[in-house]
UniProtKB/TrEMBL annotation:
Mg(2+) binds at residues 31, 55. SUPFAM superfamilies: P-loop containing nucleoside triphosphate hydrolases (SSF52540). GO terms for molecular function: GTP binding; GTPase activity; metal ion binding. Keywords: GTP-binding, Hydrolase, Magnesium, Metal-binding, Nucleotide-binding. GTP binds at residues 24-31, 77, 133-136. This is P-loop containing nucleoside triphosphate hydrolase protein. It comes from Lactarius akahatsu. Belongs to the small GTPase superfamily. Arf family. Signal peptide: none annotated. NCBIfam families: small_GTP. One of its GO terms (cellular component) is Golgi apparatus. InterPro entries: P-loop_NTPase, Small_GTP-bd, Small_GTPase_ARF, Small_GTPase_ARF/SAR. The lineage of its organism: Eukaryota, Fungi, Dikarya, Basidiomycota, Agaricomycotina.
């Protein structure tokens, strides 16, 4: 009887676990975000910002919400490390792409990388969130400016590809994805915007196509 009740209790209180990858250029603030999420949601606080070094490989953080567990994978963003990202695409339930909204000079490099992420077939149906980080700093681009900057970059890319012939880039799926792209602002350092991001992830992974595939 005990085992039956225990089994029933475990079944009723079972929490689905979802994997979320956090990617973006080096220095965008991915680890700062992960550690802030840990601090805000766990009893054991994450690392303070001054103890965070550039990521060589990955960092992992887990948080338990009332009805789900989110496992975050913060992947190093340095050029040589980005090659590991696709290894995580097959198993993730959501993708969070972080942009440094202050570093105007590296925005196009960030879009090049983001564009490759968008076109990865393994994550076509997976919820994707674009984050404009460092909103606490003066000179940071707003959410609307970041979205616009990406759209302008993308149009430019399509036009130059067309000029070079072949409009292969301008595919329907990609355009739909960009049109429905969610962009949110935050300060990973101060924690503003972080709860809204976790809520977004929580809601979107529940409805993720991949969830149905894996259950
Ligand atoms: N002002 C400000 N600085 C931030 C914020 N988020 C991160 N930083 C700073 O940006 C720098 C890089 O942050 P990291 O979290 O290490 O960046 P990362 O994206 O993990 O970089 P890699 O591990 O190399 O891929 C650090 O000096 C952080 O303190 C933010 O919201 N505001
Ligand atoms: Mg890092």
């Amino acid at each position: 009887m005990y085992h039956l009740l225990k089994g029933l209790h475990e079944y009723l209180t079972r929490k689905d676990e979802f994997s979320v990858i956090i990617i973006g250029l080096d220095g965008a603030g991915k680890t700062t975000l992960l550690e802030k999420i840990k601090t805000m949601y766990n009893d054991t606080p994450g690392l303070p910002p001054d103890k965070i070094a550039p990521t060589v490989g990955q960092n992992i953080g887990k948080i338990a919400l009332p009805s789900a567990v989110l496992q975050f994978w913060d992947l190093g963003g340095q050029r040589g490390i980005r090659t590991i990202w696709p290894k995580y695409y097959g198993d993730c339930h959501a993708v969070v792409y972080v942009v440094d909204a202050v570093d105007h000079e590296r925005l196009s490099e960030g879009w090049e990388v983001f564009d490759a992420v968008l076109s990865a077939p393994q994550i076509l149906g997976v919820p994707l969130l674009l984050l404009a980080n460092k909103q606490d700093r003066s000179g940071s681009l707003s959410v609307a400016e970041i979205r616009n900057n990406y759209e302008v970059w993308y149009q430019h890319k399509i036009e130059s590809a067309r000029r070079r012939q072949g409009s292969e880039l301008d595919n329907e799926q990609r355009r739909e994805r960009i049109a429905s792209l969610d962009v949110m602002g935050l300060s990973a350092l101060e924690g503003t915007g972080v709860r809204a991001i976790v809520d977004w992830v929580f809601i979107r992974v529940q409805n993720s196509k991949r969830r149905d595939e894996s259950s």
